[in-house]
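thread: overnight batch results

M.L. [08:02]
morning all. the overnight job finished for the chain we discussed friday. pasting input first so we're all looking at the same thing
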Amino acid sequence: MLICVTEGKCIQLVDFEAVPCRAGTLLILHPGQAHNFGIEEDWDGWMLLASPEVLSPVAFAQTAPWPLIDLAGLPGCIQFANDDRHRAEAEIQRLYEDALIAPGPSADVHALLRYRFYAFVAWLVVVYGRQYPGVALLSGSLQRFNRFQGLVDERFAEWNQLGDYARHLGCSEKTLTRAAIAAVGVSAKSLISRRINLEAKRLLAHTALSVGAIAEKLGFQEATHFSKFFKRETGCTPREFRDRGCFDL
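M.L. [08:03]
and the structure it wrote out:
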């Protein structure tokens, strides 16, 4: 989901963090993220919803093999400069107008929308693709960090020890820690804990699963161990977090 604010100001909550937005702000939200529009109503904008396969090469004709656009390379929040803001809003306006061409489902219109959306996202990646400051001379370190981060997203419910990731990547725990600190200023161990804690919050907010079921889903042998971990990371118990409305932080 892409949210482009065109008028006013607001604070949106993305994965339980407040994100101040104003005219020219673009939020990029991925499947599974927790999102709340906040309480402000004096703002306006566009919201684009697209299934992940829309950007997949198989969605295009085989005679025109398009590369897969990596939305993970974009920051979650972009503040456009004036010229870029006008271009982004114009591209979204064209998407809206093209969607109104046919009154019913049309393969041609769907193809047109897919190409326009692909071109828009490709432009975002080219202009606003995420850069990690301070690691320009550490390409090997950055590549290792990227692999580690991808593994954490895949295996956080199975592997909660840094050593598991180090063994899989064929390096030491110290090497992974140095790579993480160089890339994002946070230790590798902290990144693992943050990812587990984030998933716990998402499950508490999005599902009716019991605390025990969430603990099992996240790889904790006992619900009490999970509750202690969550309180250490968040400052409240899972039940307290859910009872107070999850987003009311």
